Amino acid sequence: MTLYTGIFYLLGVITLTATAMAVTRRNLVHAALWLVVSFFGTSLLFYLLGAPFLAALEVIIFAGAIMILFLFIIMTLREEAAPRSFREVWRRWRLPSILGLISLVLIGFFILSAASSYHRLMPAMAAPIDFGRFLVTDYWLPVEIVSFLLFVALVGVLYLGRATDELEEEESLPSVEEEA
Amino acid sequence: MIVPFGHVLFLAGLLFLMGAVCAAARRNLIMILMGVEVMLNAAGLVFVGAALHWGTLDGQAFVIFIMGVAAAEAGVGLVLFYYLNRRTGDTDADSYHTLKG
Question: What is the pLDDT of residue B20?
């Protein structure tokens, strides 16, 4: 038992608690903020496991960019959380929870039966400069593919997110409420 | 020593299942997308742990690609919800049962 072991379990508890709070909140803003805490915990876990560059990216991309995007959309949609009865909540969560628990038992079984699960991880650190050099020499093609994927996503977002009046002019199909 | 490799896998497995249960149980489209983000994040944790386990950088390189995919998915997914919300007026997954328009 070293200091690193204690830090790992502490970060694990923080991350799991924050994620559990995030997935169960009725209020979407609270869920998004709990998820930010969860991503910070994961970021510190990345740092502990020897990936300082990825820890920085986790904060910048996940906790920063993606969650801010979520918050913007939540605020734009003005979704109000209606209180729900316990029975209805139970009815919705019952089957996914049971399936999740079965999967958890299976995951635990496979982890316990694999020999490499008992291999002890020693602290190591990949310097960002080495990691960057590795990425653009050995993985330059996937990097290009991901950048192309992001470009396609950008074009798709620009197409779907046109101004509302522009959209209504082109509207040829009846909307869903009109049909109903 | 930090911890046995299995503990990292188990933590990531728990996180992944929380995301999966969230995506399956919640009705709100934004919460479903958040569940998917949690799942991608947990997959990244497995890759970082594996990179430390085998002492190579390949696992860390894959996390970069996971982050790229997560960013693209969040952007396109959220703008689709926004687009659909202007038609139906809510974010409940059960409202989107038609493919027309």
Answer: 95
